[in-house]
Structure formats: C-alpha cells, structure tokens
Amino acid sequence: MASPHPLKSLLQLQLASDASSVLHLSFVLSTLSEDSLSPSPHLQKWTSRVTSLLHSKDARARWAGMCIAYRTSSLSKPTMIECAQSWAGLAMSILTRSEPLPMLKASVRYLRHVLSAATDVPEFQRQLTTPTVPKFSQALVSIVESVADYELKTLAMDTLKDMIILYPSLHRALSVSITDMCHRILNGSAPQGTNKWLLHSAANLYAALHYTGGKVGAANLWKKSVDETLQCLWAALMGLRTTFPVMNSPLPSSGLSVDDPVLAVSLNLDRLQCSVAALCSLLRTTVQRPVQVPAGRIMGFCLSLLACTVDDEKEEVHTDATVRTLELAIVPDLQNSACDLLCCLAKSIQHRLTPYISRLVVMMTYHLEQNPLPEQRCRLLKCIQVLLNNSFPPSTELSSTRLVKAIMRSLTPLLSTQPDAHSAETDSGQSKKSRKRRRDYEGDEVFRLSKSVICSSPAEEEVIICALDALQVAMRGTELHPAVRSLTCRVLLSLSLSLPAMPRSFLSQDVHLHSLVNARLNGICLELARGTTSAMGRSLSLVLKSTVTEGNEHTMKTKLEVQQQVDLLLHPRGPPLVRPLPHVEALSLFRAEESNEERAARTSLDLATTHDVNVMDVTAEPIAVTPSLPEPTPQPVPTHLPTPTPRITAPAPPTVLTNQQRTSPVTAAPTKDSADTRSVTSAREAENSRSSTSGQNERAPATLEPPHIPVVVVDHDDDEDEEEVMPSIDMESDSDG
C-alpha cells in the first residue's frame, strides 16, 4: 500500500485546526522538503491553508502561518512567486499594526527573503518589488525608532542594509531619514552604553548609505561620511582629555558637553567607541569606484589614542578631581579602541601602512612592557599580529628586538612548574627539622584541594594564543638581534619539550587549550627550521611531529598543510632535512655556550636556567664545619621559569657542578695545582669519591646527568631511623697523591 502524500498528511492531522497548527509547528517545519512541495494536487490546498492561517483572528495562528509561508517560500521558488502577491501584502499589513514581537520578526524575515530571492525575474520585480520595497523600508525605520527590543531592531537594520544594497535607487528618498536614524544611534548614550548588537548593525547600515548616490556619487558620499566620522572622533577624544595637556587636533577643545562630569565622560567614551565602529565599517565596505583613504588623518588619530597614558602630566590650571579620576580610568579603553581601528585600517590598506609601522611597534611595545591586564594585552598582541601580517616588518633592529622580548614575557608563565613552586613556598616557611621529617610522596599533588593553574581565566588563555601568533610573525623579520633570536629559539624549544609532559589540568581548566598551544608551538618551530641551517632545521623528527595531531577539532591539520610539510622531505630542490645531528659546539642550549648578550637578554626577561637553580640549591643548603659557626638562613628554592636570574659571583666559568664541586665549601679552596692532579683523583674516585677537590676545566663539555647531592646533617636527633648519615671521610688518605 502506497504511503500518502506528505502534504496530505499534514493537512489532515497537524494543520486541521488553528490550535493544532500552533502546537505542531516545529514538526511541520521539519517535515517540509523540496520534494514535498513539487507540483501536485495537494499543493493548491496547502497554499490555501497557509493563507487562511494568515487571515486568522488568533495571533498565534497568524504567527504559525507566517512561519510556514517563510519555510514554503525558501524551499520552492515557483510557489513563492505564485503566492508572494497575497502573502507579502498580509506581511506588510502586520508591520504597520501593533503586533507581538514574534509576529513582527517572522514578517520581516519573510519579506526580506521574498524581495531578495527573485531578482532575476523582471516581471516579479516590476509588479511586486518596485512598489513594495519603499514601503517595507519605511516600516523598518519606524520599527527601529519605536520598538524597544534590541533583537528586533538589529534584525530591522540588517534587513534595511540588504535592501539598500540590492535596490539603491529606491532608497534615495529615504536616505535622509535613514542617515538621521543612524546618527542618533551612533551619537552614544549615557550612563548606559549603546548595545553592542545595535551598534554594529547601525554602523554597517551607515556604511551602506553611499550606495544611494549611484556609481558617480557613491565615492563622494563615502568620503563625506569618513570626514564626519573623523570629526566626531576628535570631538569625543578632546572631551575625554580635558584635564590633560592640549593635544594637536584639527578641532578646538570644546570641553565637557554635559554639566554632569560623570555623564560627560561616559557619553564621550561611548560616542568614541560608536564612531570607531562606524569608521571600521566604512573601511570594510565596498565602493564601486576607487576612493582615496585618508590614511594620514586616521593614523594621526590612532597615534594620539596610543599616546594617552596614565602618567601624563596634569595641567597647571585647576581641574576637578572626579573628572581627573574618571579620565585616568578610561585610558585602557582608549588604547583598545586604537587597536581595533588599526586592525581594520591595516586589513584595508595593507602594505601602504608600512611608513607608520616602526612608530606603531615602538608605542605598542611600550604598552606591553607596562604589564597591562590580560584583556588589554590580548588586544595589543592581536593588533601587532595584524599589523605585521599586512605590512613589512620594522626596519630597525632595536624596535624588533624590544618587540620580541615584550612578547616573550607573555609566554614565560608556561615555563614555570607549579608543583615545584608550591613545594618551594612550603619549604621556605618551615624549619630544617620539619623539612627533614616531612615525607613527600609521588603524585601527592593530585590530592591537594588548592591546585592552581597557569591560565586561571579565559583572558589569560587567549593571551597565550595571541602571543604565539604574534611571536611567529615577529620572528619573520630579518632585523632582529642574533642574541635575542637565539634566546627565542631556546625558549620555544624548551616549551616544545616541556609542554607535552605537562598535565592538561596544570595549564588551564579547558583541556583543549593544551592541544591548541602544542600545535601552535610545533608550527612555529617548523617555520623557524624551514630552509635554514639552524639546530632545529637538522632534525627530521620536527617535521614528523608537526604532522601528528591529537584528534581535537582545533588542532586537526588540513590536507594542504600536511602536503606542505611532507613536501619539505621530498622536494628535490629544497634543502634536505635529513642531515647528521649537529655537534655540541654548534648548539647554544648550554650555559657554557651562552654569550654575554644572550645572558643579559635572558636576565632582563627573568628567565633562569637549570644551572642557576642548581647553584641556588648549593648556596641554599646549610653547611656547618663547627658548631660555633652561625647557621645561615635557608633560602627558598626558586622555580625553573620564570624567576629572576640569581647573581653568581664565581670566578670560574659556569658549568654543571659535579658531586665534588658541590661539597667544596667543606674543603679548601681549589688551587692552581689541583688541575694537575685531575688524572690521579679520577683513578681514586672509585675508592673514595670525596677525598679531594677537582678543578674545573674551562674546555670540558658540560655534564647532562643530574648529580646526586648528599644531605649534610648539622643537628643530631634522637630519632636514628629518620636521620640521614653523611658518608664517612677517610682522613688518612692523601689527596695530593
């Protein structure tokens, strides 16, 4: 037995009455398809039932009928053209009456689809579109001005923007009223700011008004809109800097526009943000003919925003303390607005922004060095990435070096070990006897209730990602100090080695961040190794590691990326990556191979190596020769990274300490003759490893194996089970051999 037609079943069951139509609306919309709306005897009955629902006295039934009409028109274009004359008239009558919000939204969506989906049918355009579009646009303007719901206002302005782009000549009579409506929204509000959805919709609508001028007048209207927006920006900025020195602006200082200083500051700030959004929309819009972008004027305003700091001197004249405090509090908001405007400008004019890159990089580097909040740091890092991606890198070595060092400060928290830091803080506040009796078990951090993570907020997580992206772009510049480049490669290599061993819960509460950061690190290391003869370019495993993903949707590689990485291995003209591993002398991974400039750069970034930590372990261990000597105060064990590099005043070159060197405070200081007895002491080392002190050889390679540090016990406790005995020293042995 053949199954009944889908439309027949819906008409007999779900759409049998107005109440059932509202109740089963979701099922009806999900059941409809293009095949069910193909020409059939039931199609005419279907359209008649939808029309009867639109004429119903029940508002819910009319809403259900409008939703079904929208779904039917989107699935069948012939049915839409056939029924649009009657359904569109009913929808227009709904917009002119006081109807519930769902009804108004459904009518706006239906009319937008009908008026934009049949632009290729001339007869439909002549009979329906031309007389309906002006009435529809006028109804949308009335909705924006009268309705208080932000979602409906946003829908109306987005629809009005689409209608202006599709039918610009039909909106010339309404261009003045639409412009006034946009100006009222973009003028700002206080004390409550403009809604974000409403702001972006109004900015996009304002940026589309130049279409009403046609091919000839569109460029002039666009230029006029840009000039007016720049004037509003300068006026708002001058209203926010009344207690600061006079800025070089094309407009005279007008002071406060409102009597209340609190309302004046909030109003000018919101007006500034609205004008920035409008200018960004104007830069992103499409103009039919070439136009000249006032890059110099826009850049001058951005530089003025970036020059605003909390350290600016106060004017000598008397100022209100409340106004001064409020204007100081909004300085980060001014810098965020500058970053948003610069990102949009860089994407619009691209390499034409190169003459301003050096100055912009210097100013943003200064703001990064002031240790801003994570939200502001993220804005700065995103702006730096966009600027360097769309223009040439800065030509000066100093600015590039400062920028890379400022970006690396955002990545240093990834190098710190949280459990070690927790144990160091605990040990520093306890006595030596308490530390001796306390027993730490492996995996004890799992049972700690107060476990901290590196990224404790979503803003800090985003800072890590933005810092990696910005560092990848900054490292592409050729003007970079070799010491800083080497240090950056060491930090990235340390991150790529330590991050896979770090538990996901130590990095962030979001477990996907670990995979995302790991994938970014592999990509940066692979880019640094590509086509170079550096240490990372000599390892085949780096390319193979970058192709492996962990199945996360954020880290899945595309086929093109995998093809490019495999092409590095198979390309006949590319530099081969299958090379012998470099010698130890070619690597700068050890402190003995570290230059003075690289050490100074590492110290300025508060980065410490494992050698520094080991030296601090030796200096922090209390060693007493006689009971009469005072016991030194135990020092806390610093974390690996990030910690300030300790100042080591050892005359010998820095190398990894051995067991005999770590116990040197107990014995005599090494002399010049001790280097001659190195061969003799090495022969006796199997019998008595602590009989003499071996001298340091400046050319000896560094030892990578962690040495065993014996614990020196000063006080004698009655509990013999818990006491660790120091190895006995044979006093009869002759260390001079």
Could you estimate the helical fraction of the residues in percent?
A: 55-70%
Strand content: under 5%
Shape assignment:
globular
Quote the average pLDDT. 76
User: What is the makeup of the main sheet?
Assistant: none
What structural class do helix, strand and pairing data support? mainly alpha
Uncertain regions spanning at least 5 consecutive residues: 417-436, 549-556, 577-588, 620-725
State the CATH topology of the domain at 1-170.
Answer: Leucine-rich Repeat Variant
Number of strands: 0
Distance between the termini: 109 Å
Radius of gyration: 36 Å
CATH class of the domain at 1-170 reads: Mainly Alpha
Please work out how many helical segments DSSP would assign. Answer: 31
CATH structural architecture of the domain at 1-170:
Alpha Horseshoe
Biased composition (Pro residues): 629-645
Family: Belongs to the RIX1/PELP1 family.
Domain Pre-rRNA-processing protein RIX1 N-terminal: 8-191
Biased composition (Acidic residues): 716-737
Structural write-up:
This protein is globular. The longest helix is centred in the first third of the chain and has 27 residues, at about 215-240. α11 crosses α13 and α12 (about 215-240) runs antiparallel to α13 (about 260-285). Helix content is about 55%, strand content about 0%. By secondary structure, the chain is mostly helical. About 30% of the residues are buried. The chain has a domain at about 1-170: Alpha Horseshoe (Leucine-rich Repeat Variant). It has helices spanning about 5-15, 20-25, 25-30, 40-55, 60-75, 75-95, 100-115, 120-145, 150-165, 175-185, 195-205, 215-240, 260-285, 295-305, 320-330, 330-350, 355-370, 375-390, 395-410, 420-430, 430-435, 460-475, 480-500, 505, 510-530, 540-545, 560-570, 595-605, 610-620, 660, 680-685. Residues about 415-435, about 550-555, about 575-590 and about 620-725 have low confidence and may be disordered. It contains 31 helices and no strands.
